[in-house]
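COURSE: Structural Biology Practicum
ASSIGNMENT: Worksheet 4, Part C
STUDENT ID: 0417
INSTRUCTIONS: Below are two proteins. For each, the amino acid sequence is given first, followed by its structure token string. Answer the questions at the end about the second protein only.

PROTEIN I
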Amino acid sequence: METILSKALEQGVIDDAVIAESLEHRKAFWHVRDHITASQKPEGGSIKHDVSVPVAAVPAFIREASAAVVKLVPGARPFPFGHLGDGNIHFNISQPIGADKEAYLARWHEVSEVVHGVVMSHHGSISAEHGIGFMKRDELPAVKDKVAMQLMRQLKATLDPNGILNPGKVL
């Protein structure tokens, strides 16, 4: 890991890196990681995404999605975080400093459309570790072809013929 990080620093791929040197240090890193979303709250609204792209596409996705979001909402502050080496990205975007929180959050769908467009251009998925869920339920048909949707419905009907597992949530 030190070799990889050293090369990344030399090539300008990263600005800084730290490796945990003890279990306590590791716990401290996880504490920071686990509280990122909460730390965004004092900054106002945050539009959140849980997306995935092929690992090799992560840097390009972050650059392109960040630029697209800032073009759409000048002053928006992309904050990608959460994973190393698996293609999953928590792509949160904090509102511009001084912006009206409610007005910013009212653009959730518009911002998500831009982010998801970049995801799809990299052959990724609008969902990663947290799945489709209720919020992305209506977006699924736009990013999956009809055959995939039909297959998912058939699988759901086979595994849940009485429709009692998570009714009305996704399929």
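PROTEIN II
(use this one for the questions)
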Amino acid sequence: MPGGAPESWQELKPVWDAIAAKVDPETGKPLEGAEPGKPIEGGVPCSAYIGSDGAGHYVKMVHNGIEYGDMQMICEAYDLMQNVLGMTPPEIGKTFAKWNEGLLDSFLIEITADILQQADPETGKPFVDIVLDTAGQKGTGKWTSVNALDMGVPAPTVSEAVFARCLSAVKEERVAASSILEGPSIEFTGDKEAFIDAIHDALYCSKICSYAQGFQLMREAQNEYDWTLNFGEIAQIWRGGCIIRAAFLQKITEAYAREDDLANLLLDPYFKDAIHNAQANWRKVVGAAVEHGVAVPTFASALSYYDSYRTARLPQNLLQAQRDFFGAHTYERVDQPRGKYFHIDWPAPDRPQLSI
């Protein structure tokens, strides 16, 4: 993901293309042995000039923010299978291995399947069970979230993934709280296989929303920093040689091939239909998680993002009225052109009152 002067890229392009991971031009899947630092003949190199100045670094940052979301979503799927369905790590690992053969085919799903079926060499227990539940971070997810806030772009799923790591870090507090705070205590009585399928759909729908947020952030960044980003190409070079490499990215490349100025991935016909067909399961999973007391911050925030984005009239009309009341921040009216602002002199004794 190089940025900077285009002349420099032209000098370095032969080297970068030679050592970059390669993907099959038809399927978009990584070629055998196509990893960074291991030259391989044939295929499409996963490298491309991103833009001037720090464009390459920025896109890499967003890539990592999306990665935070992907990892947390997978953890939530694992948590639901473990704590709602009572599945063992090897059983969950086999489920992820099966998922890796379909829509969720990706590096992270693949290694998750392997991790969950790995035994601890010292105790013989499932390896994942002896790993302390405190996650570290290098900061790129936080940078992505901060930048989204600075530009006023909604990226709640990445932010929730960052906060989930922060919450995991207060291990001692959580252990103490677990003996004080109470949650629901119910057993799952539904169809186990159907619920596993529903978790799959919730993971896929949440993933779509997370990537939609990341690409929307890059879309705004190009306006903010005067870049011209090729979003289809960005998705294309992420198909191999990086942590979030996945078959799913081919669909993003195709979406931008259909409409290069696509406002949001959710509006692309493929992704629109994918969520339409799976959202009932997505909602079922989030509801079940709440009912069973299992935290699903990325699943739930992605669903809230989707429901907010598809809603023509949000309740922030009340919020803006509150702002005008306590701070004279003004408001726009639905019956006047955008950009025209008004204020009521609160509290006015002679203002009209609604009668019930």
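ANSWER KEY EXCERPT:
Q1: The first strand starts at residue 22 and ends at 23.
Q2: The chain has 13 helices and two strands.
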